[in-house]
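Aim 2, interim progress: modelling of the inosine-5'-diphosphate-bound target.
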Amino acid sequence: MERSLVLIKPDAVQRALAGQIISRLERKGLKIVAMKMLRMEKNLARRHYAIHKGKAFFDDLVSFITSNPLIAIVFQGENAVQIIRQMMGETDPAKASSGTIRGDFGIDVGHNLVHGSDSPENACKEIDLFFSADEIFDYDRELDTWIY
Ligand code: IDP
Ligand code: MG
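Predicted structure of the complex, ligand included:
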C-alpha cells in the first residue's frame, strides 16, 4: 500500500490548524502509520528541500521550516500520494481551490501549511529522512473493509 510523507508546517501548528488538517486526511480514509513532532534541523531541511537549492526562495524556505516545531506524519492508503496532493491544493494558496487545505486556510505561498510527497519514489526517500523503520506501524483497521 502506498505511503506519503505529510508535514504539518510550523504555520499550521502556530495557527492551531494541525487537528483540522490531520482530521481531513483521516476522514478521507487514509491511515496514520507514523507521527511525531519535531523542530527540523537546518541540515534536514536542506536535504528535504534539496531539489529547490539555488532558487530565490530556498533560504527563506529553510528558515521558515526550521523556525518552529512541525508535525511529521506518514499516511498510508491506495494512491495516497496523489490523493493527498489533491487535498492539499496548489502550492500557492491564493490559487488553490476552495475545499483544499491550502485553498481554505492559506493566502501566501511561503505559508502554505502542509507538505505532501509528490511521487511514491520521493515519498520513500522523504519518509526515510524523518522516520526509522521501527517508528512506522504496520497494523490493520476494521474500518478499512468499508473504505476499500
Ligand atoms: P509543493 O509544496 O506544493 O510541492 P514546491 O514547488 O515543491 O511546492 O515548493 C516547496 C515549498 O517551497 C512550497 O510548499 C512553499 O512553501 C515554498 N515555495 C515554493 N515556491 C515559492 C515561492 O515562489 N516563494 C516562496 N516560497 C515558495
Ligand atoms: Mg514539492
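The first helix runs from residue 10 to 14. The radius of gyration is 15 Å.
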